[in-house]
Amino acid sequence: MPRFMMFMMIPGDTNEADWSPSAEDVAAMGRYNEELTKAGVLLALDGLHPTSKGARVAFSGGKSSVTDGPFTEAKEVVGGYWVIQASSKEEAVEWATRCPAEGAAIEVRQVFEMSDFPEDVQQAAGEAAVSPSEQPSAR
């Protein structure tokens, strides 16, 4: 069954340092998460610390650069996520519409499975996943 990631997106102009959910918001979200659990679709979920406690790693010209948060240029910020199993994108979207997320948005994206890739990509990934000690020795 396909997996979907649902990202809780909060407006980038929200002051993350001052933002805290109310007890009512937490209770409503708890009921929603329990509904996902009882339906057997929930695989994982977590809230995320503000971007001020994070870092962004960018890659260019074969090098990486690190920028510490907060990321003031962001239009939206990922505040949390769920990973669910659903039979289709439509079912995943239906679950997202039930979330008590006033003032936020939820982005729903399907997770790639290895079977989604062409055979040569699957083979390359399989070879990369084998540790050096497991690879046949060249004699």
Description:
This protein has 3 helices and 6 strands. The strands form 2 sheets. Strands 2-5-1-6 form a 4-stranded antiparallel β-sheet, covered by helices on one side. Strands 3-4 form a two-stranded antiparallel ribbon. The chain has one domain (about 5-110): Dimeric alpha+beta barrel (Alpha-Beta Plaits, 2-Layer Sandwich), CATH 3.30.70. A hairpin with a 2-residue loop joins β3 and β4. The chain is flat. The protein is about 25% helix and about 30% strand. It has about 140 residues and is an alpha+beta fold.
Q: How would the blueprint of this fold be written?
A:
Blueprint: E1 3-11, H1 23-38, E2 42-47, E3 55-60, E4 63-68, E5 76-85, H2 89-97, E6 105-110, H3 119-129
Antiparallel strand pairs: 1-5, 1-6, 2-5, 3-4
Rg from alpha-carbon coordinates:
19 Å
- Residue stretches low in confidence (pLDDT < 50, at least 5 long) are none
Average per-residue pLDDT, rounded, comes to 87
CATH fold naming = Alpha-Beta Plaits
Number of domains: 1
Measured as a percent range, the helix fraction is 25-40%
Strand line-up in the sheet with most strands = 2-5-1-6
CATH superfamily label = Dimeric alpha+beta barrel
The biggest sheet amounts to: 4 strands, antiparallel
- CATH class value: Alpha Beta
> What proportion of the residues form beta strands (DSSP E)?
25-35%
Instruction: Assign the structural class, choosing from mainly alpha, mainly beta, alpha/beta, alpha+beta, or little secondary structure.
Output: alpha+beta
Total E-strand runs: 6
